[in-house]
Design goal:
The complex is a heterodimer.
Chain A (H helix, E strand, L loop, with lengths): L2 E3 L4 E5 L4 E3 L2 E3 L5 E8 L6 E7 L6 E3 L2 E6 L4 E6 L8 E10 L6 E5 L3 E6 L1
Parallel strand pairs in A: 2-12
Antiparallel strand pairs in A: 1-4, 3-9, 5-6, 5-10, 7-8, 8-9, 10-11, 10-12
Chain B lengths: L3 E4 L2 E4 L5 E7 L5 E8 L3 E10 L2 E4 L6 E7 L2 E6 L8 E8 L11 E2 L3 E5 L1
Parallel strand pairs in B: 2-11
Antiparallel strand pairs in B: 1-3, 3-8, 4-5, 4-9, 5-6, 7-8, 9-10, 9-11
Classes of the chains: A mainly beta, B mainly beta.
Chain lengths: 118, 116
C-alpha cells in the first residue's frame, strides 16, 4: 500500500529565511508520480509540481526547488528567501498505477503548515 | 473564470438532512473525483468517476453517494448528514489522455460543510 508521510506538522520562519518541507513516501511500484500542492489561507488547492519516478533531476522554479531522492524515498520541497505570501499548508502526494486499471490513485500526506512571519 | 467550480462554497445543515454538493468543470477532462479534508488527515478520496457511466468508491464512501450527470458535472450527496461529516470537500478533475498514474488532478475551490 502506498503511503506519504510529512513529519513536520508546522513550521514557522521569518521572512527571507530558506525553508525545507520534508516528504517521505512508500510504494511497491517502480513507476509512480509525486506531487506537491499548496493550500493558501483562502482554502483552494494549487498544483505546484509533478515528478515521475524515472526522473531524479532536481527541479527549480523561481524560489521553489524540489529534491527527489529514490534512495531515501524522499521528495523534499525548499523555498528560498521565503515571503509572507508563502504561508500556506503544503501537501505532498503520491500516485501509482492501481493494479493495471490505469487510474493513478492519489494518496496525500497529512500536510505541513508553513507560517512565514514578516 | 475558474476551470473547476463548486457550489455551494459554504453550507450549514442539520443532522439527518439530505444535501448535495455540486461540481462543474470546463477543462474538458473525463475523470472527476470527490475528496474530503479533515485537519491532520490530509485529503481522502470519497468517490471517483472515469466517465459518465463509470463510478467507483474511494476509501471513505460510506454515507455518501454521487451522480455524474454529464462529463462536466459530478455531484456528491450526503443522504442523511451527521456531525462527523463536517469537513472541507474538494472536487478534482484529470485527463485520461495523460493516462495512468501521471495524470495531474486539478482541484476546485472547496466547499466548507458544517453539520450541526
Amino acid at each position: 500500500a502506498q503511503k506519504v508521510t510529512q513529519a513536520q506538522t508546522e513550521i514557522s520562519v521569518v521572512e527571507k529565511e530558506d525553508v525545507t518541507l520534508d516528504c517521505v513516501y512508500e510504494t511497491r511500484d517502480t513507476t509512480y508520480y509525486l506531487f506537491w500542492y499548496k493550500q493558501p489561507p483562502s482554502g483552494e488547492l494549487v498544483f505546484l509540481i509533478r515528478r515521475n519516478s524515472f526522473d531524479e533531476q532536481n527541479e527549480i522554479s523561481g524560489r521553489y526547488s524540489w529534491n527527489f531522492q529514490k534512495s531515501t524515498s524522499s521528495f523534499n520541497f525548499t523555498i528560498t528567501a521565503s515571503q509572507v505570501v508563502d504561508s500556506a499548508v503544503y501537501f505532498c502526494a503520491l500516485s501509482e498505477d492501481a493494479g493495471g486499471t490505469s487510474y493513478g490513485k492519489l494518496t496525500f500526506g497529512q500536510g505541513t503548515i508553513l507560517t512565514v512571519h514578516p | 473564470d475558474a476551470d473547476v467550480t463548486q457550489t455551494p462554497r459554504n453550507r450549514i445543515t442539520k443532522t439527518g438532512k439530505r444535501i448535495m454538493l455540486e461540481c462543474s468543470q470546463t477543462k474538458g477532462h473525463d475523470r472527476m473525483y470527490w475528496y474530503r479534508q479533515d485537519p491532520g488527515l490530509g485529503l481522502r478520496l470519497i468517490y471517483y468517476s472515469f466517465d459518465v457511466k463509470d463510478i467507483n468508491k474511494g476509501e471513505i464512501s460510506d454515507g455518501y453517494s454521487v451522480s455524474r450527470q454529464a462529463q462536466a458535472k459530478f455531484s456528491l450527496s450526503l443522504e442523511s448528514a451527521i456531525p462527523n461529516q463536517t469537513a472541507l470537500y474538494f472536487c478534482a478533475t484529470s485527463d485520461s489522455r495523460n493516462g495512468g498514474a501521471k495524470e495531474t488532478q486539478y482541484f476546485g475551490p472547496g466547499t466548507r460543510l458544517l453539520v450541526l
